[in-house]
Design goal:
This protein is an alpha+beta fold and 381 residues long. It is 62% helix and 11% strand. It has a 5-stranded mixed β-sheet, sandwiched between helices. Strands 1-2 form a two-stranded antiparallel sheet. The radius of gyration is 33 Å and the shape is elongated.
Amino acid sequence: MIHLSDDSDSNGKRLTRGSFLDGDDEFDEEYNEGESGHENGGEQTLESFSKEVLSRLHDDGVPPIPNNFHLYFDRLLDEKPIDFKKQIQQILEIEEDDSSDEKRVNLEKRVKDSFAQTKQILDIVALLYKNLNLMLDIAKKRKEDATKAANVSAFQNTLTAFKQEIEKLLGIFTNQRGALKTLYQKSAKIAGEVESETIYDSTYGIYNKRYLVRELQKELKMIEKFNHNTTLVMTKLSSPIEKKIKSDKGRLLVTRTLSRLLLKTSRRSDIIAHYNNGVFALLLKHSNILSAKKASERLSDLVSSTNFFFGDSELQLKLSIGIAKVDLGRELKDNIKCAIEALNMCDENGEVFVVYPDDEIEASHDDDFDASEDEEFEDFA
């Protein structure tokens, strides 16, 4: 944790709560009203508590970066009444759903179990190799004995001994084969369980469809509780551009570049994931249709300025983008379906982006757009 060595301003005056956030009078007035209301017995809210955390960070001379805020948030929450802690905990449980340390520990245990079983498989394979070499040695020895046999009786004895040794080795091989099969099945099961919980797409270096669905489910719960706007954007290379890329290797190279651009230009709060077959999803939290349009325009301009060379030919990239509102009135799968339908309409018509028709109509009647939500992507001028 970084601590400020001095909490004075350039004139040598100690910063007061009134000067917090560089003289934002509106914020200070709201803060003081909220604080005085709480001190007078009013019910504390999440907003007033967050301001209290910021104030304590300031008073202690600690930079209000996310990690420090998290630490102070937890520490101050312990001092609050039980009812208020329960209220906050209910909100945090929505955010922390399916990502607890306990589940991570269980996943690690299964991975370690898989490694242990794999080691046992290798040990058995090593024993099988040794036993095969032993069988070859026995066969060579008995062959020599048979060659040297002076009569039929001696030859018969050699065959009998060889048969007994082979039967003994076959018994060992049978047991080891059964153990190998059991270990393989256990390892395959664990590998399948781990694969079913992965959230990372190693091909594109971003989240996968499973994580997107999980986060969308959580976001629907948050919208139900706080009634904010969130949009889902689906994007991919336009069909005419895809057809110009003849090789699978070339398509993979271009889509990987697209995923890096999406990741590089997104906000920390946005979820970027590979949905399927070169289609990427952007879950833009606290963003309405208008801000999603502006984000899509910026993304389209950025990608369009990126050229690829395939042999002697130059290829200018172009995206198809579909936008849909994350709506509580739709099932989770229907929210995704709406964004994909908008993407398909955009791809067919060759437009920069298309908003799902029902959401476009609703957005045209929305006069409450917050200008602070404009900036969805960094300006890459």
